[in-house]
Amino acid sequence: MRGFKTEILDTETKQVLKIDKEGRPPKAQMIIIFSATGFGKTSCEERIKQSFKAKGYTIIELDVKEEMEACFAQFEPEESYHLKRLRDQHEDKETLQALAEVNPKAQMMLENATYPVKIYHPFTFSIPHEKIPEQIFYTIPLKSLHDSEIQFLIGEAKENQSFKLLSKAIRELKDDESLAHLLHKVMDMTERQTRIIGGEEIRLPDSDRYSIRGTTTGTIQTADDVGSIMDIFIRHGFLSSMNDELNLDWVKILKDNKHLHLFSQRYLDGEKEKYFNRLWIINQIRRHQKFVKRPILLIVSELGVLCPKKPVGYVKVFSAYFQRTVRTVRTQKISIMSDAQTISVIDENAFKLFTEGFFGNAGLENLDAYAQAYKIPRETLEDMKELESGEYVWNRKPYAGIIKMNMPLHMHKEEGVEFDSVMARLAPERMINYSELIKKRKEIEKEIKAHFKELAEKEIARLEDAEKKRRIEREKLSNVKTAVAEMQSKVITTKKAEIERRNNIVKDLYDSGITSSRKISAELEKYGYKLGHVQVSTILKEFKMATEQKKEDTPAKQE
Questions:
Q1: What is the pLDDT of residue 1?
Q2: Does the N terminus or the C terminus of the chain have fewer Cβ atoms within 10 A?
Q3: Which secondary structure element, helix H or strand E, spans residue 156, and what is its range?
Q4: pLDDT number for residue 218
Q5: Do the beta carbons of residue 343 and residue 369 sit within 8 Å?
Q6: How far is residue 59's CA from residue 254's CA, in Å, rounded to a whole number?
Q7: What angle, rounded to 10 degrees, do the helices at 435-511 and 533-553 form?
Q8: Mean pLDDT per 10-residue segment, the chain (559 residues)
Q9: E runs forming strands in 214-354
């Protein structure tokens, strides 16, 4: 590999950072920088970063602080103090140009003094409408999400019902299906409450969620809770299909060691989506590194923010996974560098994973914690009490004294200076207005919502039509039942009249002097009735009983 065997961090003490050895695979290094604000933490990081850049590493940085510090590496330094420090280091441009003709290393330093930066940002509808620095807005394919990202979304590092529901829905997505399809799949897999409309239970569409229908009750295991989890992504629009034109080519990124690759989230307005993007980026680096022979340096600043002492919810899931990543990437040619203002705010298990420590002025109250965590000897601790800005103690062995960290060869972010203004002044042609991109993505979103709204309206129309047909059928059935009932009533009435006529004939025959049941039965045949003598006897008996009862009910006349 072309480059320096070692890179000088401090010209005066000649201390160097051993990154790799010629002819051997690079060894992953876990580096952490501790220093209070204003004491040169960023400069220290930039100098170390420049050492890795000279060795041919692909450098990927997550801009946790959202200050775009890494982007200043594109430009040459301008501040007088910076230029003076470079002259004191014998690394100013004039000195290096003079040496370059006879010293290849000086020529190499000139070539790596500044380097281009590619800025990546998840697409969001919150992109400013004015001109901003040129960057690559990307989408995240839903099918690229694995267990860790799904557990992060539900806020629990375990496989509960919500995890299984979301995982299954993602696995069933087709390459051209996006977030809207995912939500509908989740809905279809979940038992939901319904309302009665037109005699049938249906689920009403929610237009804000691509017209998915219905509401749910219960815990996070329900589809409504999954929908709530995904609301932030509906608002931003960076979760997409596998075929989306804004998806990143990770193999191409990891092979590109010419640029520094900075991933920003500064236009996102919620912390959860920022952490989600960081987790996804780390996962993509791990999953695609096997396709790239080039070693990688991943820079993730603010370890205290990413792995705090008492994390909760999705931060806890992120912290656990990030620590697991640091433990496992050593064999993947992936080095990691992080920083923090103090050790006291970081999860103990997290900072112990970083074996290479640079300790600046981070407060006397934490010296014992540093000494215990990194086994710093007493004489080193004494030096740590007197550190000035830009001075560091390195836990390398043997200890070689305080490092006055060299300034980077490129521009350094100064306090109060915004990158956007520097970019507008030094490279105005790379200031871009992304209004057309926002408009295009809004049109795509509008089409998706309109599509699912149309489907929902068609289903409601189908249900209403089916209900109308059922109502007509019910009316027909009701009419038939009414006609049958009327017919039955007529039959019953006719039959009752016929029985009453027959019984009256039996009575009249009996009153005429025919007292024998058999004779009455025979006489009835003349009237068209066939009735046995037993039935005749029964009729006569009922008649006699009715007559006697009538007499009893009639009061006797008083004389």
A1: 27
A2: C
A3: none
A4: 34
A5: yes
A6: 8
A7: 90
A8: 42 60 61 89 90 90 95 95 91 87 82 92 95 97 92 82 84 91 81 55 59 48 71 88 96 96 95 95 94 92 94 92 90 89 90 89 79 80 84 81 88 93 97 96 91 89 90 92 92 90 88 87 87 88 82 60
A9: 239-240, 260-263, 296-300, 334-340
Return d(Cα 232, Cα 238) in angstroms, integer: 10
Q: 69 with 392: CB under 8 angstroms?
A: no
> Which residue type does 105 have?
K
Pairing of strands 356-359, 212-213: unpaired
β-pairing verdict for 260-263 and 117-122: parallel
Instruction: Give the max Cα distance, the chain.
Output: 163
What sections of 512-532 are H helices per DSSP? Answer: 517-524
pLDDT score of 229: 79
Task: Tell me which amino acid residue 366 is.
Answer: N
Report the C-alpha gap between 230 and 452 in whole angstroms: 17
Check if the beta carbon of residue 214 is closer than 8 Å to that of residue 194: yes
Q: How many CB atoms lie within 10 A of CB 65?
A: 13
Q: Which two tokens stand for residue 546?
A: 């009715």
Q: What is the model's pLDDT at position 4?
A: 30
What does residue 493 show for φ and ψ, rounded to 5 degrees? Answer: -65, -45
Amino acid found at 241: S
Distance CA 92, CA 355 (A): 32
> What are the extents of the domains in the chain?
6-76+114-139+246-433
pTM, two decimals, is 0.79
Strands 391-394, 58-62: pairing kind: unpaired
Comparing CA positions, the residue from 326, 345, 293, 412 lying closest to residue 31 is 326
Looking at the domain 6-76+114-139+246-433, which fold is it?
Answer: Rossmann fold (3.40.50)
Could you give the CA distance from residue 91 to residue 341 in angstroms, rounded to a whole number?
Answer: 29
- For residue 319 the two structure tokens come to 């912290």
CB 308 within 8 A of CB 345: yes
Question: Residue 160 CB: number of other CB atoms within 10 A?
Answer: 13
3-state secondary structure 170-231: HHCCCCCCCHHHHHHHHHHCCCCCCEEECCEEECCEEHHHCCEECCCCCCCCCHHHHHHHCH
Q: What is the DSSP letter of 26?
A: P
- Phi (first) and psi of residue 406, to 5 degrees: -60, 145
Question: Which residue bears the tokens 């996070």?
Answer: 220
Read off φ and ψ for residue 89, nearest 5 degrees: -85, -5
Instruction: Name residue 173's amino acid.
Output: L
Asked if 195 contacts 461 with a C-beta cutoff of 8 angstroms, the reply is no
Q: Which of 17, 28, 84 is nearest to 392 (CA)?
A: 17
